[in-house]
Amino acid sequence: MPTRLNPYLNFSGNGREAMEFYQRVFGGNLVVNTFGEFGTEGAQADQVMHAMLETDSGFTLMGSDLPPEMDYTPGNTITVSLSGDDMDELRGYWTALSEGGIVSVPLERQMWGDEFGACVDRFGVPWMVNISPART
């Protein structure tokens, strides 16, 4: 397996819902392991200890619910960036990710010639989408 770099997102009790949402947006195979599968009992047993979404487009997105003793401050340490020249694919991702979220930069043509938008999805995760003109 080659070395890869991918985002790892943290959630506060809604990790399964968030990762299933991303699977609906991006497609692919989602594997979810709960804390209970590794011996944790009680309220945290059904929460996500580790989830990994691998898509046909080559994306890998990982995530987990944080234990109650860990600080959860969404949005201030990571932004997930999607970029490419497949306008339909990227616009579809944008539509799904921004629905129910907060758009800080509408997806539109920018001074550098690409379409770009920024939003925070309904789970508090910041996203940037950049669509470059297809190169011929």
UniProtKB/TrEMBL annotation:
Every PhnB-like domain range: 5-129
InterPro entries assigned: Glyas_Bleomycin-R_OHBP_Dase, PhnB-like
Pfam families tied to this protein: 3-dmu-9_3-mt
Domain of life (superkingdom): Bacteria
Record PANTHER family: PROTEIN YJDN, PROTEIN YJDN-RELATED
Protein's name in the database: VOC family protein
Source organism of the structure: Plantactinospora mayteni
